Amino acid sequence: MKENTVPFFKLFLSFFPFTWFLNIIHDRFRKGKINFENTLELLSKFDIPYDYVHVKHIFKASDSLKAGTITLEDFRGIYRTIVHRGEIQELFKAHAPNHRTLPVPHLVEFLRNEQFQPEANETTASQLIAKFEPIEEAKRNAQMTLEGFLRYMTSDDCAIFKTEHRIVYQDMTRPLSEYFISTSHNTYLLSDQLIGPSHLWGYASALMKGCRCLEIDCWDGPSNDPVVYHGHTLTSKISFKTVIQVINKYAFLVSDYPLVLSLENHCSPKQQEVIADYLINILGDKLVVSTIDDMVPNELPSPEALKFKIMIKNKKLGTLEETLERRGTDSHGQTGEFEEEETSDEEKDENPAQSKLPLLKKRRTHWKGSIPPRKKQKMKKIKIALALSELVIYTKARKFVSFEDSRENQHFFEINSIGELKARKLAKLAATEFVQHTVRFITRIYPKGTRTNSSNYNPQEFWNVGCQMVALNFQTAGVQMDLQNGKFLDNGGSGYVLKPEYLRNANTKFNPYVLSANQHPVILTIKLISGHQLPPSSLSRSNKADPVVIVEIYGVPDDQTKQQSYVVKGNALSPRWNETFTFNIQVPELALVRFVVEDQLSLTSNDFLGQYTLPLLSMNKGYRKVPLFSKLGVNLHPASLFVHIWYFTQ
Ligand SMILES: *[C@@H]1O[C@H](CO)[C@@H](O)[C@H](O)[C@H]1NC(C)=O
Ligand SMILES: *[C@@H]1O[C@H](CO)[C@@H](O)[C@H](O)[C@H]1NC(C)=O
Ligand SMILES: *[C@@H]1O[C@H](CO)[C@@H](O)[C@H](O)[C@H]1NC(C)=O
Fold it and tell me: Pfam families from the entry (predicted)?
């Protein structure tokens, strides 16, 4: 250690704000002062992510003469304000011998003891130094200076979301029904003009978010060419063919795993045949038209077995066996018909008056002078073209009657769609039965018909009972979509997340409302240390805000809670909280953690600044950066929170 003292001291003299710093800024200041643009350029040269509004305000404050230029000393001040974060300096000093540099062995110790990375060794530490240390001399000596440490701690390498969960890491060879599947409802956007008609971009955009089940509303169009639009909205009509072409192009850009097209089919058998032809001709080999090996299996295949495949969910005539027996024969011109109760799963059954079709029926019934339709079990005829029916293999739509009916009569390749209100009732009244149902069958939940403004319900309550496809309006931002995006960050953003064992096991007794003793609860401790370059309030003309952080837990009802920090007055640049929150979480596998940052405008109203949501078990332990996203899901980098995370199983 003694011999090291001299080089350490030399090094200390040689780094900030001396040689390294001067080398970079020398050119700029040769002519004296620099302006704002040069300041931004210099910060970029130092690899410093900055927020324009914050730097602008600090620059203005430094420019005391209002000349639009600053001196070297002023720039040093800006650099320190933006980069030299007190909380990270404290951490560095606590781990660096002589408070100056972190040699490799000390960095390894820091990673193991503070960052909970037991596998960290000399190689890991050297790689970090090579990646983050800007001062050449320190790099050569295998040491990390404060400059390197600051860059490391604020990088994605220190992000709260586990690196190992950013790729597909779960077992993908289980039957499809064992996964939560990212699902969208009525996929369209009203205002986006990027690739033409708004809802075309809606499909592409949902696929780019990892969505693996899209809903397509098909209607008879002119010239025997089916069209897509949403019956009770103002969206324009586009041809079914174009929709399938767009889906074909975007289907596997983000995820390799299978895509389900859920057809909400209002077409005549004649146009259903056209639909079948488009699907076959445009999707080609991607389309699932038979079972694997042409044999009838007794359970659903896995996402792995169906990589790069597209499946059609629609009503179907008869069984899978019959389809396989008919293989090779031409099914054009043949149709089948069956009767179903009026409140079919695709009508918005909770409030018939809200959708057009039941409204017409209602009038007619009234005209006949019969009893109101809500009381009467009206039957309607459904006509299906055999050509389309034959394309439905693993995802046959089946009307949900009751859990008992499903237990006795439902096939493994049949999917139920249940409206939000009915599903909520079932979850409350018969949660365990619901769970046992979703262990066997893929279950899709869709929003109630009164959500004509495309608002969303909380998906968590249906994930809690194992529902695989909990369909949300992807175009409607808000806490529900934050939960959706957060949940499906897991497993590489592939759109498939393996359900916990108690939602997959045929003998499960799991009930999210009445927890049994065999859970493995987790104690979670979050120390909220600081915020960094938070977006100033949209209502503020300065770079200030009165930030407050709310940590929310979503999960089973017992775990649902939130805790709030105190308000830091007038500081969006570097608020400091030092506040610790502790949560006792009964069902950690289902828990999501949402960090929300708000600006307290008054005692009764807050302005949303940013949020981040992720699965509890995808959180890294130790000192971590929490990125922040806007309401619309835009990354607000470099805005972030700095936290210390710790959790353990009781
Ligand atoms: C550090 O661990 C990695 C595997 O995690 C291993 O490949 C490497 O050889 C180890 N390095 C040292 C110096 O032990
Ligand atoms: C949508 O309508 C629901 C009531 O049906 C209402 O509570 C909600 O605030 C509305 N959302 C928007 C974005 O208008
Ligand atoms: C937070 O803690 C640090 C030391 O750990 C202290 O220097 C700082 O003043 C504290 N800040 C607040 C706002 O409590």
Answer: C2 (PF00168), EF-hand_like (PF09279), PI-PLC-X (PF00388), PI-PLC-Y (PF00387)
Which residues make Cβ contacts (< 8 Å) with residue 251, sequence separation at least 6? 207, 259, 286, 310
Active site (catalytic) residues? 185, 230
User: Torsions phi, psi of 232, nearest 5?
Assistant: -110, 30
pLDDT digits (tens, 9 = 90+) for 241-299: 999 999 999 999 999 999 999 999 999 999 999 999 999 999 999 999 999 888 889 99
What pTM does this model have?
A: 0.89
* Residue 302 neighbours by CB under 8 Å, 6+ apart: 172, 173, 174, 175, 176
What is the 126 CA–ligand 1 centroid distance (Å)? 11
SS3 242: helix
The rounded distance, in Å, linking the Cα atoms of 212 and 208 is 10
Domains of the chain in sequence order: 8-83 (1.10.238.10), 86-158 (1.10.238.10), 176-338+387-402+412-420+438-503 (3.20.20.190), 522-649 (2.60.40.150)
Task: Please name which ligand lies nearest the alpha carbon of 91.
Answer: 3
Q: Which ligand ends up closest to the CA of 112? A: 1
Cα within 13 Å of Cα(80), Cβ side: 10
If you average pLDDT over each of 348-357, 449-458, 469-478, 550-559, which comes out highest?
A: 550-559
Ligand 3: distance of its center to the CA of 567 in Å?
Answer: 15
CA–CA distance, 165 with 169 (Å, rounded to integer): 7
